[in-house]
Amino acid sequence: MEMDELRVALFSGNYNYVRDGANQALNRLVDYLLRQGARVRVYSPKVEEPAFECAGELIGLPNLPIPGRGEYRLPLALSAEVKQDLAKFVPNIVHVASPDIAGHRAVTWAKEREVPILASVHTRFETYPRYYGMAFLEPVAVALLRRFYQRCDALVAPSESMAAVLREQGMNDDISIWSRGVDREIFDPSRRDLAWRRELGIADDEVAVGFLGRLVMEKGLDVFSETIAELRKRDVKHKVLVVGEGPAHEFFSQNVPDAVFAGFQRGADLGRAVACMDMLLNPSVTETFGNVTLEAMACGIPVVAARATGSTSLVADGETGRLVEPGRIGDFADVVEAYCRNDALRKEHGAAGELRSRDYSWDAINSAVAEAYIRLVTANEEAVSA
Fold first, then answer.
1. What average pLDDT does the chain have?
2. Are both 24 and 131 inside the same structural domain?
3. Total structural domains in the chain?
């Protein structure tokens, strides 16, 4: 089977209405598939003012705002119009990118028509309850996710560490890797701009401890802020540079009162902001890959990350950064302090991370998903023929 014979129906809970690493990866995938001659239809909630112009043709799904997180939409079902569009398109592979209601309906639609299903895993949804005081719900979330993913023919995960977790949880037996790439035109050490740092009030000799991402509790904002508080107690000279926006901005600004908030950045401005950090502190355990980790590495800065899925596949502990057991504030403070006090070590690990980041080419990475599509479609056609 050739690439131009693929007809892919992609279902996502967020394709372009809020910018994040997951939907940007999906857009890059669709762009790659279209350039190879494949046909793609994307089904996802639509809004009047999306965060960015999407790749491919987007068909809207019925949806409602998620309670407490109104910037996100919950796809509710497959409307009659969507089903008509699917019937006309006649996909030979269905790709589901989120385990929501519409994702379940898409899986049912595909199974009824003997269309193979690939699911991509983008975040560790089962870990979210612990950030909102409901950790007791985590086993329930795992069981619900297992029910969804076992109905799919195969999964793709962004890192081997995440694939190992999925296998351990019994999510599926067929799991391959769809990694992530980095745009080297945007993320590069040459983007560092001391004048911009000075405008933000960061002196040339100050070590900027960076946070990069949406300001939401599941990104480990509590661990980050407690680590910074510990550095203050130890009288470690540093400056916090926060790049990103989100609903937990008030919490973060109150708990890291001396931080510089650069707000949401994109394109070349984002590359400059990351390159102006001296290290990235990423304590999140919800990542399946860690786009921000790879972007920081490409900019030549070391990463201090939680020893969790995603980060363990990117950060070589003691070579390109440091890995710390999740939630251990003292240990996080120890390694951040070491970087603050040792310029040579910081630069050595940053340079090693930049070298490692060169292995991540988007087209090569996205070809792995196309190969998974072709494998599933071919196997399905052979099974139907038999």
1. 93
2. yes
3. 2
Cβ atoms of residues 207 and 237 within 8 Å: yes
49 vs 247: CA distance, rounded Å: 18
Q: One-letter amino acid identity for 220? A: G
DSSP tag of 111: H
Do 85 and 221 belong together in one domain?
Answer: no
Helix/strand/coil for 359: coil
For residue 245, what are the domain limits? 189-357
**Contact present, 242 and 252 (Cβ < 8 Å):** yes
Q: Are residues 166 and 302 in the same domain?
A: no
Rounded CA-CA distance 244/263 in Å is: 5
State which amino acid sits at residue 75: P
**How many angstroms separate the first and last alpha carbons of the chain?**
18
190-238: per-residue pLDDT in tens? 999 999 999 999 999 999 999 999 999 989 999 999 999 999 999 999 9
Burial of 38 (0-12, 13-18, 19+ CB in 10 A): buried
Q: Is residue 102 within 8 Å of residue 15, measured between CB atoms?
A: no
C-alpha to C-alpha distance for 95 and 179, rounded to whole angstroms = 16
Tell me the CATH number at 144. 3.40.50.2000
Cα separation, 328 vs 18, whole angstroms: 31
CB proximity list for 67: less than 8 A, separation 6 or greater: none
pLDDT 10s digits, 28-60: 999 999 999 999 999 999 999 999 999 999 999
CA neighbor of 326 nearest in space, from 307, 313, 304: 307
Question: Which residues, in sequence order, are bridge partners of residue 376?
Answer: none
Give 303's pLDDT tier (boundaries 50, 70, 90). very high
Contact 106, 43 (CB under 8 A): yes
Q: State whether 154 and 244 are in the same domain.
A: no
